[in-house]
Automatic annotation (TrEMBL):
MF annotations from Gene Ontology: ATP binding; hydrolase activity; nucleic acid binding; RNA helicase activity
Alphabetized PANTHER family for the sequence: ATP-DEPENDENT RNA HELICASE, ATP-DEPENDENT RNA HELICASE RHLE-RELATED
A Pfam family: DEAD
Protein's UniProt name: Dead-box ATP-dependent RNA helicase
InterPro entries cross-referenced by the UniProt entry: DEAD/DEAH_box_helicase_dom, DEAD_box_RNA_helicase, Helicase_ATP-bd, Helicase_C-like, P-loop_NTPase, RNA-helicase_DEAD-box_CS, RNA_helicase_DEAD_Q_motif
Domain called Helicase ATP-binding: residue spans: 99-273
Recorded superkingdom: Eukaryota
Residues of the DEAD-box RNA helicase Q domain: 68-96
Helicase C-terminal domain ranges (all copies): 300-448
Organism of provenance: Micromonas commoda (strain RCC299 / NOUM17 / CCMP2709) (Picoplanktonic green alga)
Lineage of origin: Eukaryota, Viridiplantae, Chlorophyta, Mamiellophyceae, Mamiellales
Length: 484
C-alpha cells in the first residue's frame, strides 16, 4: 500500500515512491535558473509621464539623499517633538526624499519597500500644511482596504498630538448615514476606501459638495488602487474633486501601468522618488520554499506552525488564496486546538476589527488571512509569513512578505509550492531577482504523526462549514447580494 506521503519532499530527502507528476515537477523546479536580468526599478521610468499622466518628472534615488533628522526636512518643531516622543529618531529614505517636495507643494510619486515609513512621508507634511490654514475637507486619502484605512487614520491622529485634528474614516460595513453626517461636518482629513466613498457621492450631493475644496489627494497603495478593478470608483470620485490647485501624492511598494482611469491625476510637475535599494527585497527576510503534494498542504502547514516557536517566532500571518480556504484553515486549526484568527472580506466589519485587534495585541499569535492583510498593515511583532497559496499576481508576493522584516527587523517567509505553482514561482523570482531557498530540517516522522489528525480535522471543518447556517451558506448569501 502506498503512503499518503508518496511524492513529498521532506527537507532534502525525496521519497522513493514518488508520483510521476510530482517527480517531474520537482525536477523542473530544482533545476530552474536564477534570474539573469537584474531589476533596479519597478517600472520603466522613461514612460512614467505617459503612464501616470504627469507631464514631466524628476527621478531621485535615496542614494543621493544624506542621512538626516526630521527638522532639516523643513518640519516644524512641534511635529518633530511628536515624532521623537513616538521613538522615531531618523527619517527613512522615502521620508527624506518626499517630505521637502510635499511641503513645497509638488505632486509626488513615492516608491519604496513596505515598512519604510511611507505613511509618515505624506502624513507629516500634510499636517504641517494643514496647520497653516486649517479647514475641512483639506485632505482625502484613498486606500484599498478597511484595515489600512483605520491604520492610516490612527497614524494621522498620533502624529497630530497637540493639534485639534478631526479625521474621519470611511469604509463599508459601517452605518452609511452616520458616516454621511460626519463628512458633512467637514473633518480636516477623510481616509476612505473607494467603494464606500463612491456610494456617498452617488447618493448624496451634499456629501460630494464637502470635497469641492480638497487641497491634497493621497493614493496609498497606488498600484492596487490604479488597477482596473477600481476604475469606476476612481472616476466617480475624481469627478467630484477639484482639478486646480490640488496636490496629488501616490505611494506604493510597486507601481504598475494600470493607471488609465486617472490619466489627469496630477497636472503639474511631479517628483518621482524611487528608493532603488528599498524596492528590492531586503536580505533581512529569509525567503524559503517547501515543495509538496497538494493533498497534504494542511499537514505541512500544521507542522510548520508547531515548529515555529522553536525558530523564535513570536507571531505569524498565513496567507490563503481565497476567502473559503482562509476560513477552512481557521476551522482546521481550531479543531486541532491551535489558537488563531481569520481575516477576510466575508466577515462583518466588527469581527474583522476584533480579529485584527487580538492579533496586534499579541493575544493571538497566528492570523490566517487573504490578501486584504497583505498591504500596509504595520505589525512589528510579525516574524514570519507563510504563503499557503502562492499568489497569482507576483507583486502580491512582495506585499505579503512585507508584513515581516519591517523597519530594519529580520523575518522569514515560507512558501508552500506544488507542481501547479512552478510557473508562478518563476515569475516571482524574476520580479524579485531572488531565488527561493529550500526549507530544510523538516521531520518526516513528525509530519507522518500529524497527518491522520489533520485529515480528521479537515473532515470536521468541512462538515461545520457545510452545515445549515454554516460559513458556506453565509458566503453564498453574501455573494448573492453582491450580484444583485
Amino acid at each position: 500500500m502506498s503512503s499518503p506521503l508518496d511524492g513529498l519532499v521532506v527537507g532534502k530527502e525525496k521519497p522513493s515512491t514518488m508520483g510521476a507528476d510530482i517527480q517531474k515537477g520537482i525536477s523542473i523546479f530544482n533545476n530552474r535558473k536564477s534570474p539573469t536580468q537584474p531589476r533596479t526599478k519597478t517600472f520603466e521610468t522613461s514612460k512614467i509621464g505617459e503612464v501616470v499622466g504627469f507631464p514631466s518628472q524628476e527621478i531621485v534615488s535615496h542614494e543621493v539623499v544624506e542621512q538626516t533628522g526630521f527638522r532639516s526636512l523643513g518640519l516644524n518643531s512641534w511635529l518633530c517633538e511628536n515624532i521623537t516622543s513616538m521613538g522615531i529618531a531618523t527619517a527613512t529614505p522615502v521620508q527624506r526624499g518626499c517630505i521637502p517636495a510635499i511641503l513645497a507643494g509638488r505632486d509626488v510619486i513615492g516608491v519604496a519597500q513596505t515598512g519604510t515609513g511611507k505613511t509618515a512621508a505624506f502624513a507629516l507634511p500634510i499636517l504641517q500644511i494643514l496647520g497653516r490654514e486649517p479647514y475641512g475637507i483639506f485632505c482625502l486619502c484613498l486606500t484599498p482596504t478597511r484595515e489600512l484605512a483605520s491604520q492610516i487614520s490612527e497614524q494621522f491622529i498620533a502624529f497630530s498630538a497637540g493639534m485639534t485634528l478631526r479625521c474621519e474614516t470611511v469604509f463599508g460595513g459601517e452605518n452609511i448615514r452616520t458616516q454621511a453626517k460626519a463628512l458633512m461636518l467637514r473633518p480636516h482629513i477623510a481616509v476612505a476606501t473607494p467603494g464606500r466613498l463612491m456610494d456617498h457621492f452617488l447618493h448624496c450631493s451634499a456629501v460630494a459638495k464637502c470635497f469641492e475644496n480638497v487641497r491634497c489627494l493621497v493614493l496609498d497603495e497606488a498600484d492596487r488602487l490604479l488597477d482596473p478593478g477600481f476604475e469606476a470608483e476612481l472616476q466617480a470620485i475624481m469627478h467630484n474633486l477639484p482639478s486646480a490647485n490640488r496636490q496629488t501624492l501616490m505611494f506604493s511598494a510597486t507601481i504598475t501601468k494600470s493607471i488609465s482611469a486617472v490619466q489627469e491625476l496630477a497636472l503639474g510637475k511631479a517628483l518621482l522618488f524611487e528608493a532603488l535599494k528599498d524596492t528590492q527585497l531586503a536580505g533581512r527576510c529569509k525567503e524559503e520554499y517547501c515543495f509538496i503534494a497538494p493533498r497534504v498542504k494542511e499537514v505541512y502547514l500544521v507542522h510548520i506552525l508547531k515548529r515555529a516557536p522553536t525558530w523564535g517566532t513570536r507571531s505569524m500571518i498565513v496567507f490563503a488564496g481565497t476567502v473559503r480556504k482562509c476560513q477552512m484553515l481557521k476551522e482546521i486549526l481550531s479543531v486541532l486546538g491551535i489558537n488563531c484568527v481569520a481575516l477576510h472580506a466575508a466577515k462583518k466589519q466588527a469581527r474583522r476589527h476584533a480579529s485584527l485587534s487580538r492579533f496586534k495585541s499579541g493575544e493571538i499569535q497566528i492570523m490566517i488571512a487573504t490578501d486584504i492583510a497583505s498591504r500596509g498593515l504595520d505589525i512589528p511583532t510579525v516574524d514570519m509569513v507563510v504563503n499557503y497559496d502562492v499568489p497569482l499576481i507576483p507583486r502580491d508576493y512582495i506585499h505579503r512578505i512585507g508584513r515581516t522584516a519591517r523597519a530594519g527587523r529580520v523575518g522569514r517567509a515560507i512558501t508552500l509550492v506544488t507542481q501547479h505553482d512552478i510557473s508562478l514561482v518563476h515569475q516571482i523570482e524574476q520580479l524579485t531577482c531572488r531565488k527561493l531557498v529550500e526549507l530544510s530540517k523538516l521531520s518526516e516522522e513528525a509530519i507522518l504523526k500529524d497527518m491522520a489528525q489533520v485529515f480528521a480535522a479537515r473532515r470536521i471543518a468541512n462538515l461545520n462549514m457545510g452545515a445549515a447556517g454554516g460559513f458556506n451558506e453565509i458566503l453564498r448569501q453574501k455573494r448573492s447580494k453582491c450580484t444583485k
